[in-house]
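User: Hey, quick favor. My workstation is busy. Could you predict this chain's structure for me?
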Amino acid sequence: MSEHRFDLPPKAPAEVIAQRSALADEACRALAQAGIPVHRGDLGGESQGRPGAEVHVDPLVIGGVLVEWNTEEELRTAALNVPPDELDPSDLPYAIRHFGTVHSSMRDALLGILTSAGFQAEKTDGHTYGTAVFVKGFRP
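Assistant: No problem, here it is.
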């Protein structure tokens, strides 16, 4: 039980994490070969939030390898800092619409590139992982 009084899913065994890490490295290689700026977000350092594809390993049993797109800071800040009183779901501000379009377009592009390179990949559940791509396996 966590300190917040709810159960967290168990973590995957070390050998599963190692397999996922190798798969994440292969996904990074494939995206870099396609000319996509890519980095491993789960390895820490200064790479988190950097523009481009961010590949990371989710350590939970139900987790896996995820690929997400990060925009430049300017677009991200514009979309996330829209005042709440300007949020009309039927007519969202330009910054939010554009940010969403960039993310969904890049998700589709990343999915296409990874699938073409031999990866078993699919769109994730949007409520859980947003516009990420879930990489399940690799068969060259």
